[in-house]
TrEMBL record:
Source organism of the structure: Conexibacter woesei (strain DSM 14684 / CCUG 47730 / CIP 108061 / JCM 11494 / NBRC 100937 / ID131577)
A GO molecular-function annotation: DNA-binding transcription factor activity
Organismal lineage: Bacteria, Bacillati, Actinomycetota, Thermoleophilia, Solirubrobacterales
Coiled coil: none
Cross-referenced Pfam families: HTH_18
Protein name, per record: Transcriptional regulator, AraC family
Keywords for this protein: DNA-binding, Transcription, Transcription regulation
Length: 119
């Protein structure tokens, strides 16, 4: 069992990191940079993600990026490569591969499927 102070601190670290990721997901975020910004070590932030968020920094960043990409694909007519750039991927092929793995369809197919559902 962890001390209450440890749990409070890890909860704070996790929530501070989440706020940064959710607002700056399109930029080149790295765990070390986030740890420095929330006044923590890399390892402590990793523990906060594991214990409080039950995930990893990279998985959380990917989740946020894919959710935003899905919204952009459905709500806009931007080309897939532009959506990829807007959510932080420089390579549209890497974006498409991650999107397909995460949401089960290629970005263009996802866009068409979701628009048909909404109609």
């Amino acid at each position: 069992m962890q001390r209450p102070g440890t749990v409070r601190e890890r909860t704070r670290l996790y929530h501070d990191a989440v706020r940064i990721v959710e607002t700056e997901y399109a930029s080149d975020l790295e765990l070390d940079d986030i740890a420095r910004r929330v006044a923590s070590s890399r390892r402590q932030l990793q523990r906060a993600y594991a214990e409080i968020g039950e995930t990893t920094f990279r998985a959380h960043l990917t989740h946020v990026r894919m959710q935003r990409a899905a919204e952009l694909l459905v709500q806009t007519r931007q080309p897939v490569r532009d959506v990829a750039l807007r959510v932080g991927y420089r390579q549209s092929a890497q974006f498409a591969k991650t999107f397909r793995r995460y949401l089960g369809a290629a970005p263009a197919a996802y866009r068409m499927r979701e628009r048909v559902r909404a109609a």
